[in-house]
């Protein structure tokens, strides 16, 4: 029987800073704490008193890699408060912005964070260029990332803290030359994306567990529309009611907090989306992948990596369709007079369902709001899984390096984003 | 650029921020990874690797604002081990937006004070140059990629000519 105190001060190759404490007494995990160590930057407090027009750009700064997701969720919340319905062209441009984001962000996670584990390397840059397979992965990784970056930059102005999307529309529109260039780049990376999918379909890491999955289920797998669906109950929740279905869980040891639904842990992100909506993927994606999609719904947490790779292909295919069948013309931003009200925006960020709420007064000044990010929703699932994993490993080994490595691999599969997790949530710890 | 006989030892560190400049850095790798692989020995970069070493560095890139005594201690250690220290992005260079609580009203401060106390955060969030000497700055939110490349180019030339 083993008794171990394991402390990991800084988990590597994830977005942001997180730590983990696990206590094992007589082969049983008695405590498992996955905590963000990022200091709070108090965005929800900082919202107050700002003019609504400035809000999306402010909240984009909650997170670098998810910045365009926060931007679009905040815009959706502000438009909801003001009664603005975006035009069809605006929605197409927002979908393209989201596709650029997901291609870049998923590729960053899969190549730079996860793939070194598959090849027994410490870093992606350690891959051997003289080894044909590793050489190919290096080139594929940077080319896929660059194509996503190009698409987001073309449409939204930047791939991080984008400049063009705004409340009521876009401030700049892509030109025909840029659109053609984007199509070329996306078509060029498609074979690389298929190789990436193959890599993760064959990856030897597995961790099966039953949990609940929740995601926006859209008509087009566009990450921005649809209703929230929960797997086990078959319950459908209108996005505006999402917050009423979540219970907030205080974590005194972390700068972040957690959420449950009906008192149970659940998972959001690519695996949840694919488990719930694989039939909504682009027809070309479905045709290309064929029987591989039978793997979903999956209960293997590591299939979140495969689901991300599949979503890259969907984003490529749907972006090509939009780019080759649409023309974009300058369009005036829709404006409405300010009125007091509350707005809610719910979208699928790369890591899962993202919720923004804003309350404004009659002059358009923000009175308050709320932001719920995917990593906070996955928090309890992650802790439960780490505890099960450690209990499985303990009889085989007490080598802390090996256990830590296995824990990091599993946590990476969730693709947590600790910058997001540590924005300020209005939690009164003292009252707990 | 001809790769040096001895690689330039660099570290990339993030403090209180959204890590947007880290993401821009990983995007710059799309075009520069071959060159930088030959040029740099990444001693410390949590975003890229697991086995990080805090030892002597030629250049330390520091992103984010300084929010705790623990941050001050770590930044001071980085400074002592780095020949050159570059502040990266708006939060490192001017503190904001991570230092936005410095501008809060008394009523707003009352709302958050218990969290500042609980996690032993500094009363005021600091920019990097408030704590240590900074040799170069790359402003922007996120950092301006062109200014970053110019700063890197200048420092690399300096080390190659040394």
Outline the structure in words.
The complex is a heterodimer of chains A (432) and B (162). Chain A has 432 residues and is of the alpha+beta class. In chain A, a hairpin with a 2-residue loop joins strand 12 and strand 13. The C terminus of chain A is likely disordered. Chain B is α/β, with parallel strands linked by helices and 162 residues long. In chain B, strands 2-1-3-5-7 form a five-stranded parallel β-sheet, with helices on both faces. A two-stranded antiparallel ribbon of chain B has the order 4-6. Classes of the chains: A alpha+beta (432), B alpha/beta (162). At the A-B interface, helix 1, helix 4 and helix 5 of A face helix 1 and helix 4 of B.
Throw out a few tags for this protein.
heterodimer; A: alpha+beta; Cytochrome-c3 Hydrogenase, chain B; four-stranded mixed sheet; three-stranded antiparallel sheet; 14 strands; globular; B: 162 residues; Rossmann fold; two-stranded antiparallel sheet; 7 strands; 42% helix; 24% strand
CATH topology of chain A: Cytochrome-c3 Hydrogenase, chain B
Ranges of chain A with pLDDT <50 over ≥5 residues? 423-432
Q: CATH superfamily name of chain B?
A: NADH:ubiquinone oxidoreductase-like, 20kDa subunit
* Strands ordered across the widest β-sheet of chain B: 2-1-3-5-7
Determine and state the CATH class of chain B: Alpha Beta
Q: Which regions of chain B are unreliable across 5 or more consecutive residues at pLDDT < 50?
A: none
| CATH architecture field of chain B | 3-Layer(aba) Sandwich
Largest sheet of chain A: 4 strands, mixed
Shape of chain B: elongated
How many structural units, i.e. domains of chain B? 1
- Total helices of chain B: the number is 5
Shape of chain A: globular
What does the radius of gyration of chain B come to?
17 Å
Distance between the termini of chain B: 16 Å
Spatial sequence of strands, sheet with the most strands of chain A: 8-7-6-11
Note the run of SSEs of chain A as H and E: EEEHHHHHEEHEEEEEEHHHEEEHHH
